[in-house]
Design goal:
Elements: H1 2-7, H2 25-33, E1 38-42, H3 57-64, E2 70-75, H4 83-95, E3 100-103, H5 106-126, H6 159-170, E4 176-180, H7 187-197, E5 205-210, H8 220-228, H9 238-245, E6 251-256, H10 265-274, E7 278-284, E8 293-297, H11 316-320, H12 323-335, H13 346-355, H14 360-368, H15 375-384, H16 403-411, H17 416-424, H18 434-441, H19 445-457, E9 462-463, E10 472-473, H20 476-487, H21 492-509, H22 511-515, H23 519-528, H24 530-543, H25 548-561, H26 565-576, H27 584-601, H28 604-617, H29 624-637, H30 644-659, H31 664-680, H32 684-701, H33 704-720, H34 724-741, H35 744-760, H36 764-781, H37 787-804, H38 806-817, H39 821-828
Parallel strand pairs: 1-2, 2-3, 4-7, 4-8, 5-6, 6-7
Antiparallel strand pairs: 9-10
Length: about 850
């Protein structure tokens, strides 16, 4: 480097080969006073600290050079760079007080120094006729505070949050607010926006202090002092310098990224105590734990609403109104100027935002991929791996260049026990209860609670208040990366086995409640655990399938009432391959489940094959309950072969058996089957007796689905008996109940009954529309009319076709087939244009 300086006919005033191990202030000041340019050369060593010194000579020399032009050079690679030197370089870059260039060889360093000095000399020569009017600041004296960062992109969807945080800082006595949340949720941008909003309220100044590069809590106040322009020279400590700086006027101090130095919280508390007009807005992945702190968890961006059941396409305006979608579109346009939200891509964009759970960083990373990928392709890649998000802009902090780096930064701040539990709960899907975490992690409940609270403080898990009971969750974007860490652990298989065992036991606990009182509560609970139950089923299919037939029989009401039949059928078919090795009771339960699920989806061949296998096992079934449900399934499937008398006999036998058992749900199901068979046979008085018993049980035990179905059947009988006003009242009630519980099968049953009513009232066009809506809804849900209903529905369609004519019938039927549940409901009630469809 000295040769490069001599080559420009300049003289090196001082060439220091290392930081001196003694106080160098006087020596440095003398040399610097004779210098025109400061050149700093750094590699791995920070230098020694003498007793009583806070910084090494290397750092002090840099601080004293503040009045000179600075040229700094950093050698790479530096695998053993000392932390204090790394902190110094990070602070230099962060404060933009000087820039530095990297080099690898002496020749490269010489070239850089010559070029930079030549440029500097030419600039000073050009400015020689315009001397500065202000004297330079003396080293260490106070200067202007660091300003708020200027955003290079628009801030979208945070207006409410900005107002709420600004309001918190305006409340009496609130002087410390911490924005918490996982990495990438947008804490920094929100804090800067709040600072901008509050400039007028804090007249003395708003100071922004980035702390991500600081790893030593003891250095936090010094960094704050530098950013605030406090005079560190001649003061006893950074706290004293800050107390003097913030002594007058109202100040807002924004401390960004405190999570790795939360131990500095006590210093901040003391600073607040010393400075009564100072307020602090902090961002951190974990709360600071101070008594004066008010925590504000930063929420994800609002997502577009999920499509209504049975809807075709999406409403473009509704999708575009979502802040998460607006952010995606804005960032996509930055890399692909012609990008626009259209009817063609809106569904994919909305699903990308839902999959990324409204996390701004993840959405921005995804949008950057639209440079080469259309949203549909990007969505398919995301389904395979979140690494498809790629990297962000080069000016992002390194910890935020990828979503993986963001998660790893957060996980790296945890203690071993916290990290272990976090990896363990990655085995759960869609959340978990404390009881589940305790058993799967093999901890005591107190220990699981203690560690969970710490993970929540780090914003890695959160409490789901929308669940039926206390339930923890983590963002799926975090879970998928933690699942990789779990898979690499030696105890991963043991954890997965405990998870499966816990949920199989939970399913067996649900048996009696699903059949009697408490069904509604357990349906909610099982719905919340649907993802975990599915994972447990898949584990048992792979490791111990013999335990599944009983669980399948127990879970059937949940699958049936929760629209999970199609997923369940895949598992049942897979388990059938193992059926020959099962004992007779388990085999009977499996064949019953196979027959019931095949019947629901309209696979007649599979239903009849399972029926034949089950009939051969009936003599081995000793459990009275199991024998009764087998007879009921026989009644469901007999009409496939046209055996309506057989359906009547089997349903009556099933009902007789249930009447002597305490089985309210299944008694009502048997009433429904028998009443339906009697209606098909024209035995309306017998049907009314059984359907009213069904309705009474449903009302008494809160079986909403059965209450709705009983009204549909009673309404159908009323139509057949020409009691049309009573029929409409019953069907209106049934449709309201069915829409409320969002069960596709129920809504389709209601629509068919409304088609029958419309025809009886002389409105065949609306009848065809309603029949088409029912057919479209069933097709989209993968369902088919039950065998007992098919003949009556076919006769109804033929009657409507005869009245309307084939062309008009087909047109109205096709119009109805595209309606969503609510559009169809409005149309059959005459409240909207029957041709209106979802966009």
């Amino acid at each position: 480097m000295s040769r490069a300086i001599w080559a420009l006919r300049l003289s090196p005033v001082m060439f220091e080969l290392g930081a001196r191990p003694y106080p160098p202030r006087e020596v440095y000041q003398q040399y610097l006073a004779q210098s025109d340019v400061f050149i700093g050369l750094y590699w791995q060593q920070y230098g020694q600290l003498v007793p009583g010194a806070q910084v090494s000579g290397l750092e002090e020399e840099f601080e004293l050079s503040g009045a000179l032009p600075r040229l700094l050079y950093v050698k790479a690679p530096a695998p053993d760079r000392e932390p204090r030197l790394a902190d110094l370089l990070a602070r230099i870059q962060r404060e933009a007080s000087a820039s530095y260039r990297h080099f690898r060889t002496p020749a490269e360093l010489g070239r850089l120094v010559r070029d930079d000095l030549a440029l500097l000399l030419s600039e000073r020569f050009a400015a020689a006729g315009h001397p500065a009017t202000a004297a330079p600041l003396s080293p260490g004296s106070s200067r202007d505070p660091r300003p708020l960062p200027v955003g290079t992109t628009s801030l979208i969807g945070r207006e409410q949050a900005i107002g709420e945080v600004a309001g918190l800082l305006g409340e009496p006595g609130v002087r410390l607010v911490t924005l918490t949340g996982p990495g990438g949720i947008g804490k920094t941008r929100l804090a800067a926006a709040v600072g901008g909003r509050l400039r007028g309220r804090f007249g003395a100044g708003v100071v922004f202090v980035p702390l991500a590069a600081v790893t030593d809590p003891g250095l936090v106040l010094a960094d704050i002092a530098r950013a605030a322009g406090a005079d560190l020279a001649g003061t006893g400590s950074p706290l004293e310098a800050l107390a003097e700086r913030f002594a007058d006027g109202a100040w807002l101090l924004i401390l960004d990224n405190l999570e790795q130095v939360v131990q500095a919280g006590r210093d901040l508390a003391e600073l607040l105590a010393r400075c009564p007009q100072l307020a602090v807005l902090a961002t951190s992945r974990t709360a600071l734990g101070l008594a004066a702190e008010r925590e504000y968890p930063v929420p994800p961006l609002p997502l577009p609403a999920s499509a209504a059941p049975g809807a075709v396409g999406v409403h473009l305006a509704e999708v575009a109104a979502s802040p998460a979608v607006a952010l995606f579109v804005d960032r996509a346009r930055a890399v692909r100027p012609g990008f626009a939200l259209t009817e063609r891509n809106a569904a994919a964009v909305a699903e990308i935002c839902r999959r990324l759970e409204g996390m701004p960083l993840a959405i921005e990373l995804a949008a950057a991929r639209t440079r080469l990928l259309d949203p549909g392709t990007l969505l398919r890649r995301l389904a395979a791996s979140l690494d498809a998000l790629g990297t962000g802009a080069v000016d992002l902090p390194e910890r935020q260049l990828t979503l993986r780096a963001t998660v790893e930064w957060s996980v790296g701040l945890l203690q071993d026990a916290e990290r272990s539990l976090l990896e363990t709960v990655a085995v759960f899907t869609d959340g978990w209860t404390l009881e589940a975490a305790t058993q799967v992690a093999d901890l005591t409940e107190d220990r699981a609670l203690e560690l969970s609270e710490e993970l929540a403080r780090h914003s890695l898990i959160y409490l789901d208040t929308s669940a039926p009971g206390p339930r923890s969750r983590m963002l799926e974007t975090i879970r998928v990366f933690l699942a990789e860490r779990l898979a690499a652990r030696p105890d991963a298989a043991e954890i997965e086995g405990r998870h499966a065992g816990y949920y199989r036991a939970l399913a067996e606990q649900a048996d009696q409640p699903l059949r009697g009182a408490g069904q509604g509560e357990w349906l909610e609970r099982l719905e919340a655990e649907a993802g975990n139950l599915a994972a447990a089923v898949r584990w048992y299919l792979a490791h111990d399938p013999a335990l599944l037939p009983h669980a399948f029989r127990v879970l059937w009401p949940f699958w049936f009432l929760g629209d999970h039949i199609n997923e369940a059928r895949v598992w049942v078919d897979e388990l059938l391959a193992a059926a020959p090795v099962l004992g007779p009771p388990a085999r009977a339960e499996l064949e019953w489940a196979a027959m019931a699920t095949a019947n629901e989806v309209g696979d007649d061949a599979a239903a009849l094959a399972a029926r034949q296998r089950l009939q051969a096992l009936l003599d081995t079934v000793e459990d009275p309950f199991m024998h009764a449900v087998c007879q009921l399934a026989m009644a469901w499937t007999a009409p496939i072969t046209g055996d309506f008398d057989g359906a009547l006999r089997a349903a009556a036998m099933s009902l007789q058996r249930f009447h002597v058992q305490d089985e309210p749900f299944w008694t009502a199901q048997a009433d429904a089957a028998l009443g339906g068979a009697e209606t098909a046979a024209g035995r309306y008085d017998d049907a009314l007796r059984h359907l009213r018993e069904m309705s009474d049980i449903a009302e008494r035990f809160g079986y909403t689905w059965l209450a709705a179905w009983s009204r549909v059947q009673l309404g159908t009988v009323a139509i057949l008996q020409a009691r049309l006003d009573q029929a409409r009242e019953l069907l209106d009630e049934a449709l309201d109940l069915s829409l409320a519980i969002r069960v596709s099968r129920n809504v389709a049953l209601c629509l068919v009954a409304f088609a029958r009513l419309a025809l009886a009232e002389g409105d065949p066009e609306r009848a065809a529309l309603a029949a088409g809506a029912a057919d479209g809804l069933r097709q989209r849900a993968g369902l088919r009319a039950w065998p007992i209903l098919r003949r009556g529905e076919a006769d109804l369609a033929a009657q409507i076709r005869r009245v309307l004519g084939t062309e008009r019938f087909d047109q109205a039927f096709a119009s109805g087939s595209g309606l969503s549940q609510r559009e169809a409901a409005a149309a059959v009630r005459g409240r909207t244009d029957p041709g209106t469809q979802s966009s």
